[in-house]
Amino acid sequence: MSEHNWTPWAFKSEAQHQDQEMDVTDSRLPELVEINLYYAKAELCQMSDPSAVARALLHIEDALKELRAANRRPAKEAKRETEAA
Q1: Where is the composition biased (Basic and acidic residues) (predicted)?
Q2: Is this model's pTM higher than 0.90 or not?
């Protein structure tokens, strides 16, 4: 059995990812995206671990989800304002 350099963030469940996504504020968004991309880079540097690429892709997908959610927020807020008026 090969040795893996597992880290706690590698074991986040989908529910934890969704909870994290719900709690994001605009001020924290750049930080969360940067963290996900940092971990993706770290995973890609561990190319001897066969699952490193898959974990890196998950971090990249998380960063993209955060960016998409941030882009949708202003549109939702504008829609609410027009409905309230």
Answers
A1: 14-24
A2: no
